[in-house]
Specification:
4 helices, elongated, UDP N-Acetylglucosamine Acyltransferase, domain 1, nine-stranded parallel β-sheet, Udp N-acetylglucosamine O-acyltransferase, Domain 2, alpha/beta, ten-stranded mixed β-sheet
């Protein structure tokens, strides 16, 4: 294939679509499957049985599908990384495969991972998310869609990040970030992502209902269980109900309420 640089090392047991381009000194290991239109930059390493959909761009020096940073991990474990389509994964990004037999770390569609982003093992990422430079996600984090994470922000393992959330750069997050919310500092809420909701096409009625749910959960003066009991007495839009669901079924880390 003429679009594979002569210095690249591509295993005979890797599957690449005919139009995939591979840059100088890149390594693609056995078991990797790369879809049509993908562009793999120079000195990248694609490994760990990674399965990649169409039209993904992988930047210089990225390591995609590497072993988890878990001292108990058995390298003989059959796990992998699954990446959707239309993702832009920039220079020096690292994404690790799952720790569990037969399981996958997953990245959805149309995400933009800027330079130096790290996704640890078993992260489950949705679609259309933007992660600025040097964002660090620990293992087993579940991300929704249309999220923006500011540069240098760090996230503890197992937590959830809801749809349309926005997190300030250099934030330290060890609790769930509710959908539609802004967070900053150390587990501090800063209100609703109003601009993101407008850009996301939410109607004025939906935005008002989300605001009502936010006020009840986080500004009513009671605890979450009291707020949820009060919420059960009302009807909610499907959008506002996403925020309530985050309170009803948080991760093991619990919901950010500060």
């Amino acid at each position: 294939m003429s679009n594979i640089h002569s210095t690249a090392i591509v295993s005979d047991e890797a599957i690449l679509a005919e139009d995939v381009s591979v840059g100088p000194f890149t390594i693609i290991d056995a078991g990797v499957n790369i879809g049509a239109g993908c562009k793999i930059g120079a000195q990248a390493w694609i490994t760990g049985g990674t399965v990649m959909g169409e039209d993904n761009h992988i930047g210089y020096g990225a390591i995609i599908g590497g072993d988890p940073q878990d001292i108990a991990f058995d390298t003989a474990t059959h796990s992998n990384l699954v990446i959707g389509k239309h993702n832009r994964i920039r220079e020096y990004v690292t994404i690790h495969r799952s720790t569990a037999e037969g399981e996958s770390t997953r990245v959805g569609d149309s995400n933009f991972l800027m330079t130096g982003v790290h996704l640890a093992h078993d992260v489950q990422m949705g679609d259309s998310n933007n992660l600025a430079n040097n964002v660090l996600l620990a293992g087993h984090i579940v991300m929704g869609n249309h999220i923006f994470l500011g540069g240098g922000a760090g996230f503890h393992q197992f937590l959830h990040i809801g749809d349309y959330a926005i997190v300030q750069g250099n934030a330290v997050v060890s609790r769930d970030v509710p959908p539609f919310c802004m967070a900053h500092g150390r587990n501090q809420l800063a209100g609703l992502n109003v601009i993101g909701l407008r850009r996301g096409g939410f109607s004025a009625e939906e935005r008002a209902d989300i605001k009502r749910a936010y006020q009840l959960l986080f500004r009513s003066g009671g605890n979450l269980q009291q707020a949820l009991a009060e919420a059960a007495k009302s009807e909610w839009s499907s959008a506002a109900d996403k925020m309530l669901d985050a309170a009803r079924a948080p991760s093991r880390k619990g919901l950010m309420v500060g």
